[in-house]
Design brief:
heterodimer, A: mainly alpha, 8 helices, about 0% strand, elongated, B: mainly alpha, 3 domains, 16 helices, about 50% helix
């Protein structure tokens, strides 16, 4: 069995170069709602870039340096834009019943990515090492303990929270977003509903 | 195009498109928006509440917190797993209490871990505290409680003069010396270090004990002033006039309504509801009615209005 030929066949059947990087689009793709996803993706890119910059200097940097505080501000507002675009993206895709014609996998992976994003956001608030972190840690620990996950995830363990926020969860999120995008490009935009 | 998309878009009119150009334009716009928002509005960074701050600014609150912990009145005293073995206070729903599934994984004895062990460190430097600690530890439990009860009552009458707490005379045994030892520890800025007493010092990254120390009245008092309490939508708020984690509003909403608003099991109840809500979101394509709702709501007619109108004014129909 030739694995390379098999992979070529898989791509030919499912994801051509034109699918991955399209130069043509159905004419019904003509609404601002098609921009919410790419807006969320752009904000995610901004989050990763600003997050990497902050990770170079450590979690205490932004408390002491004006430059660090500005990068933290960029990170903070990127989060707001990210979730704003994401909520609009989910709401409008729901209104379009965008899971039709076999796109249920795209929807479900997207929903999982949203769940991971929310948890990543929580670990971000916990990693701020300021009053918000203190208060959210002692409040959220009750929810985690009640749900039985307190033994695995301790909101007051800054080491665990920080590494989750800067390594494990972003990797998982990027992986899920990557699969989501792969499905989107593989399937193309769903046709409009019958009126 | 691939065989799959060739088949799907057969007979669908296409238009020229540039994915990368569109993506780059959106990326630039988002970047500019974020930079402008950051430059104009900055970001919240309310400073931490440290033991030193509480000891210096609110010495009475510090002493009440310490004495209550030593008297066994801390909310962690009988919290249940993962801190204590008793499960009476573990939240349950339909007889199921997930809190106990993993048992006690981070055992905490508040009087010992929060007060007596830190005081043993103070005792190395302060002979009076060493004597008081010995007196306290060799007294009977009933005697200890009698001293503490009297001292806690006296703290209600105490006054603060020039930063010093003045307690009315009474029989408190060694407790005032011990509590003043804790206050000195707090004022010195060494409280947190003394609380995080484990083998990985000085590389401790786990602040469980120092965060739990003040969580009851001190943190709650600060949160109250900042409108961050649970009945004020709690952790979805942000300090100051900044937007917080507003995407958690559906989660915090359920804490505001009965029966969760007054339930001892609210965290578990809300957690179960939100898990259910998330499962519905995840399984939208498969859930009858939920997956038909968009057709009845009709918002799609607005989104695809150009398509339905057609470039030549004729109506078009498509998909499923």
């Amino acid at each position: 069995m030739n694995l390379t030929r098999g992979a070529q066949g898989l791509l030919t059947d499912n994801l051509s170069l034109e699918d991955a990087l399209p130069t043509r689009m159905p004419v019904y793709v003509n609404s601002v709602v098609y921009l919410f996803g790419v807006t969320a993706l752009s904000a995610l890119a901004a989050l990763i870039v600003t997050g990497v910059v902050m990770s170079l200097f450590g979690p205490g940097w932004y408390h002491e340096s004006r430059g660090g505080h500005f990068v933290n501000s960029l990170h903070f507002w990127s989060v707001q834009v990210f979730f704003g675009a994401l909520v609009l993206h989910i709401a409008t895709k729901y209104m379009m019943a965008a899971w039709r014609d076999g796109r249920w996998k795209t929807w479900m992976v997207g929903a999982l990515a949203f769940g991971v994003a929310v948890f990543t956001g929580l670990t971000g608030f916990l990693s701020q090492t300021n009053w918000d972190s203190q208060w959210i840690a002692v409040q959220a620990k009750d929810a985690m303990n009640a749900l039985g996950v307190g033994a695995l995830f301790n909101t007051m363990d800054t080491g665990q929270v920080l590494t989750l926020h800067v390594v494990a969860l972003p990797l998982l999120l990027v992986l899920l977003v990557g699969v989501h995008l792969l499905f989107i490009r593989r399937e193309g935009p769903v046709k409009p509903l019958e009126r | 195009m691939s065989k799959r998309t060739d088949a799907y878009f057969r007979n669908v009119p296409m238009k020229p498109y540039d994915l990368l150009r569109e993506g780059l334009i959106v990326l630039v716009v988002v970047t500019v928006v974020v930079v402008v928002l950051a430059a104009v509005f900055s970001s919240p960074d309310y400073p931490t509440v440290r033991g030193e701050d509480v000891a210096k600014r609110q010495p009475l609150a510090f002493l009440k917190t310490s004495a209550n912990i030593l008297a066994g009145n801390s909310s962690i005293q009988d919290y249940g797993p993962p801190y204590t073995p008793d499960t009476d206070n573990a939240q349950s729903l339909f007889g199921i209490a997930p809190a106990g599934w993993f048992g006690v994984t981070d055992r905490i004895d508040p009087p010992q871990d929060f007060i007596l062990k830190p005081l043993a460190r103070v005792a190395v430097l302060n002979g009076d505290v060493a004597k008081a600690l010995h007196t306290y530890e060799t007294a009977s439990p009933s005697q200890q409680q009698a001293w503490l009860t009297a001292y806690l009552s006296a703290l209600d009458e105490a006054t603060v003069v020039s930063g010093e707490v003045q307690v009315p005379p009474g029989d408190y045994g060694p407790v005032p010396t011990l509590m003043n030892g804790m206050l000195d520890l707090g004022r010195s800025g060494l409280l947190e270090g003394a609380l995080e007493n484990d083998a990985t010092l000085p590389y401790t990254l786990d602040f469980t004990r120092s965060l739990l120390f003040f969580q009851d009245d001190v943190y709650a008092g600060v949160a109250d002033k900042l409108d961050l309490l649970g009945d004020e939508w709690g952790i979805s708020n942000e300090t100051g006039r900044y937007p917080g984690a507003w995407w958690l509003w559906p989660y915090t909403f359920f804490y505001q309504i009965p029966p969760m608003s007054s339930s001892d099991n609210a965290d578990l109840q809300v957690g179960a509801i939100i898990t259910g809500v998330f499962l519905v979101l995840l399984l939208v394509p498969l859930i009858p009615m939920v997956n038909r709702l968009p057709r009845w709501l009709g918002v799609f007619r607005l989104i695809w209005r150009d398509w339905y109108a057609g470039s030549d004014g004729s109506r078009r129909e498509a998909g499923g």
